[in-house]
Amino acid sequence: MAASGPWSGQSDTTENYMLIVSGSVHYAPFLGDWQEFKDQTRKVVVHQPGWTDVMIGPRRGEMQGWCRIDKKNDADTAYDHYANKRGVLVHIFKTSRTSSNFRLLKCNCSPSFPGLPERSHSPNRSGIDAGGVNQYIARTHAGHSTPQYTAPTQTIYSYAVYPQIPAYTTPTFQPHAAPMQSAVPQIPMYSASTSGIPVNLRHGAMLTEARGIFINNLSYNVTPSDLITLVSSVGQPVETKLHRDPRTGAFKGVATAKFATKEEAQYAVTHLNRRQHMGTTINVRLDTEVQVVGQVQPPAIVNGSR
Fold first, then answer.
1. Which PROSITE patterns match (predicted)?
2. How many CB atoms neighbour CB 2 within 10 A?
3. Do residues 273 and 184 touch, judged by C-beta distance below 8 A?
4. Per the confidence metrics, is the pTM higher than 0.85?
5. pLDDT of the residue at 30
6. Which residues lie below 8 Å from residue 119, measured CB to CB, with a gap of 6+?
7. How far apart (Å, rounded) are the C-alpha atoms in residues 16 and 137?
8. Could you confirm whether domain 209-293 is CATH 3.30.70.330?
9. How far apart are CA 60 and CA 23, in angstroms?
10. How many CB atoms lie within 10 A of CB 241?
11. Helix 224-232 crosses helix 262-272 at what angle (to 10 degrees)?
C-alpha cells in the first residue's frame, strides 16, 4: 500500500492518530516498556498522548510501541522526532473510534528497506498494515481504558498482550507393581526425571521442578525497579532479587526471579535470553534451584505367606 500524501481533513471527537514505532532496544531504549515510550512521546508533543502499549514485534529482536495521539500537529511532530532516530521504523495511521476506516498517512519504510520506491510502504517487511492496526485497536476499544501513568515501581501492566500460559498439572506416576510372591526380593521400580534420568521409586520420591530464572550480564546500574520492569515484560513474577557482594554490597550484574509455574519460567527464558537491556546483552536460563511440588509414595507390598 502506497503512503498517502499530505495530511487532510480535520480531527474531531471520533478521529485520532496511531503512532507505531518499531526497532531494537539497542537503537530505541525507550521501547523498554510502555511508560518509557509514553514519557519519550510526551516530551515532543503539546497535548497529552493517549493509550500506549509496547509489545514484541514480528521481526527478531524487535519491539513495537503503539501510542494514540489526538492532534494532527502532535502526530506530525512525533513522526519527525522518531523518524530521525537511527534504526527506528515509524508509521502514522489515521484511525477512527467509530469505524474501521483506518488509513496510513506516512511511514519511513522506503529509506529503511533497500529497493522500495520512494514514499512507499511494505507491509510484509515492516509487519504493519491497516488490517492489523484495525484488529489491534478494536481489542483496545472493546474494554480497555487508557492506561494511567504511574511511578516506575509499578509491577503490573494490564495492557501487555502475552500468550496464555498453559495450566500446570502435577504429573501422575504409575510405576509397575511388584509381583505378589512370597520370599521374592522386591523388584526396583523406576520412573524418569524431567531431564530423562531414571529414578528408583522403591522408597518413594519427591516431585520437584524449576520455577525460577537466572539472569547475568546485567548492567551494574540496574535497580530493583528496573529488574521488576524487565521481568514483568514477559510475565508475572512472584519474586525478583538482585544478588550483591556479601562483603561490599555492590551489585555484580546477576539476578534471579521466580514464577508460579515452570511453564512461565521457561517462557521468560525464551523471550528474555540475549535481549538488549540498558546497554548490555543479558543471558537468561532456568535457575538450578528447584521447588518441591509433590511426593510419590511406594506401593504396599503384600507378602502372600502371611
1. RRM (PS50102)
2. 9
3. no
4. no
5. 92
6. 2, 3, 110
7. 12
8. yes
9. 10
10. 14
11. 100
